[in-house]
Amino acid sequence: MTEKHLSSQFDAELNRVSARVMELGGLVEAQLRTAVQALTSFSTEAVDQVVATEKRVNALEMEIDHDLSTIIARRQPTARDLRLLIAFSKATANLERMGDEAHKMARMVQSIIDSGTQRALPSGDLRVAAEMASNLLRKTLDAFARLDTGAALAILKEDDRIDAEFDRFVRTLITYMMEDPRKISASLDLLFLAKAIERIGDHSKNVAEQVIYLVEGKDVRHQSVEQIVSILQNPARL
């Protein structure tokens, strides 16, 4: 078998895994949109859709992990190909965790519905943050598909806005609970919802960091946005 043929096979395998990662991303994006719909309308039907999608997300994650393990064992990739497979693996893990957070959101919405307190709770501000997280995931998938480091950097900055929304909502919720202690139990469901939304933003940020790692060969985890900008301005490559 010629070296060129082997290379073509490897490229085909990489393309198939890439397509499956994007399929997983689309599935999680739809799951999150449905979770936001459940929060917006307090819809039991939307909650059920999120729960049903969770099984598909988990199954696809396991299939991608198996494919990646097989490719690494058979091809023993190096340099940029290895970075690509690592990026696929970490993106897959973060996408699956975003699905978990969407599932948590749905469970909390169902708990609020069961309590009968949905109309009395200050959920409007939380919906804004949920929409921000959903839009951020969409942008993250686009940046990953195009390997766009500029878009990835913008995502890191936008995640800071979701963190700020989370902090603001927590302060609002604490005030609300102090004014009416009878609503504490239902308000805690909203707090868990808010935390799930904030975590989705964090996972989107993690995927954006993988885009930078893949394109630039530089690990920018645990760095501030300002530090990452400085790193990207250095033309050195690994």
Q: Could you outline the blueprint of secondary structure elements for this entry?
A:
Blueprint: H1 3-41, H2 44-75, H3 79-115, H4 124-146, H5 149-179, H6 184-216, H7 225-232
Structure characterization notes:
It is a single chain. The protein has 238 residues and is an all-alpha fold. It has one domain (3-232): Up-down Bundle (Methane Monooxygenase Hydroxylase, Chain G, domain 1), CATH 1.20.58.220. The chain is built from seven helices and no strands. It has helices spanning 3-41, 44-75, 79-115, 124-146, 149-179, 184-216, 225-232. Helix 1 runs antiparallel to helix 2.
**Helical stretch count?**
7
Look up the CATH topology. Methane Monooxygenase Hydroxylase, Chain G, domain 1
Query: What is the domain tally?
Result: 1
Biggest β-sheet: count, sense, barrel?
A: none
Quick one: CATH superfamily? Phosphate transport system protein phou homolog 2, domain 2
Shape descriptor? globular
User: Can you give the helix content as a percent range?
Assistant: over 70%
Mean of all residue-level pLDDT scores? 87
Q: Which consecutive residue ranges, at least 5 long each, have pLDDT under 50?
A: 1-5
User: Which class of secondary structure composition applies to the elements?
Assistant: mainly alpha
- What does the radius of gyration come to? 20 Å
Number of strands: 0
Q: Quickly name the level 1 CATH class.
A: Mainly Alpha
- End-to-end span in angstroms? 31 Å
Beta strand %? under 5%
